[in-house]
Amino acid sequence: MTDAERALTKKGETTRDRIVDAARAMLLARGYDGLVLRELAESLDITLGNLQYYFPTREALALHVLGVEGTRDALLIEDRRRSDGPLENFRTSVRDMAVRYRGESGQLLLMITALAQHNAEFEQLYRTSYADFYPVFETLFRELNPGLAALEVAARARIVNALVEGSAFQTAVGDLDAYLDRVVAEAEAIALAPAPPG
Prior knowledge:
This protein is mainly alpha-helical and 198 residues long. The protein has helices spanning 3-30, 37-44, 48-54, 58-81, 86-101, 104-116, 120-144, 150-167, 176-192. α1 crosses α4 (58-81) and α2 crosses α3. The protein is elongated, with a radius of gyration of 20 Å.
């Protein structure tokens, strides 16, 4: 690859990243129906054709933005595995997810869920996001509690994820840090409980 080709590739990556960042902000501010490609292009001072070179349709752009959000948890957990021990990774991951689900990440994940009810491509994204997340999340459970059978690991991972996702919808929780500490403690109790007999 020549220097000129590398420069064009870098410029293309920068433009693509700008589009994705601006689309994420627009989705958060205005929802899926408010994601208007012409307005997005104008806000970035690029042509609509340039934007559509990267993302031909609103659906393609939203799928990309929401897909990035859908893989974030698995990537963060994997990153921590390189530096943290299993218990610290578990605690940090659960708390981080609980915090993020109370903010922008939660808004975007809810958007995936809502769009999946009426659109096959978003339904596939929804399923793929969980299919990618659970094997990584289940690894934490196997590392913390190696005596658990595979079916038990899968069940506990889903119960803890339901606890974490549901925690984001709770209001009037009092001191947020204390509440999040409790969510982490309950998740840890589920993860570390002895294997059921039999």
